[in-house]
Amino acid sequence: TSRLFNFADLTTDNVERIEVLRGPQGTLYGSDAMGGVINIITRKGHGETTGFVSSQSGSYASFVERAALSGGADSYDYSFGASREDTNGVSAAGAKYGNTEHDSHGNNTFSTRLGAKVNEQLGAQLFFRGFSARNDLDTSGGVGGDDPNRVAQDDEYFGRTEINTSFFDESLKQTFGYSLSSLRFIDNTDPDEMNFQSLLRSRYNGGLQKADIKNIIRITDELKLLAGAETKIESGKSSYFSDGPYGPYQDDFERRSLTTNGYYTEIQGAFLDHLFPAA
Question: What is the C-alpha to C-alpha distance for residues 61 and 4, in angstroms, rounded to an integer?
Answer without folding.
Answer: 31
